[in-house]
Specification:
alpha+beta; 2 helices
């Protein structure tokens, strides 16, 4: 699978839990950082208030430790009427650490609305593999 966005992540001491692993909730923060890079690349203002995460699913494969080189690779794998689903892989020192799927809903005036055509076109331009629903 090819990913149009790859984001290096610096593991902070505050990301760690009592076992000295990156806390499970922080994986979603790493995913969010990559999703923000993706959205900026398709021309979206991530501070617009038009996006809300509706669902997140994480498969934890191995722990991430302080000092490891971490990278999140992200793509959009599906676009629906008012939402899209991202898929990401989090890598630590070249080993797969997690797989994450997130459903993001497009909002207008605080309510779900159709994903705008400019966003669909931006996703289509950025992706190198077919996206379901486009």
């Amino acid at each position: 699978m090819r990913f149009p966005v790859r984001v290096p992540i610096e593991v902070r001491f505050s990301d760690l839990d009592t076992l000295k692993h990156v806390n499970n909730a922080v994986y979603l923060t790493y995913d969010e950082m990559a999703r923000g890079h993706y959205l900026r690349r398709v021309g979206a203002a991530i501070d617009s208030g038009n996006f809300v995460m509706a669902r997140a699913e994480v498969d934890y494969i191995r722990p991430i430790l302080f000092g490891q080189r971490v990278e999140v690779a992200l793509r959009v794998e599906r676009v629906g009427r008012s939402s899209f689903r991202t898929y990401s892989e989090t890598w630590a020192d070249g080993q797969l650490a997690a797989q994450t799927r997130v459903v993001v809903v497009w909002l207008e005036e605080g309510k779900p609305a159709p994903v705008p055509e400019w966003l669909r076109q931006g996703i289509r331009r950025l992706e190198v593999e077919p996206v379901e629903g486009l």
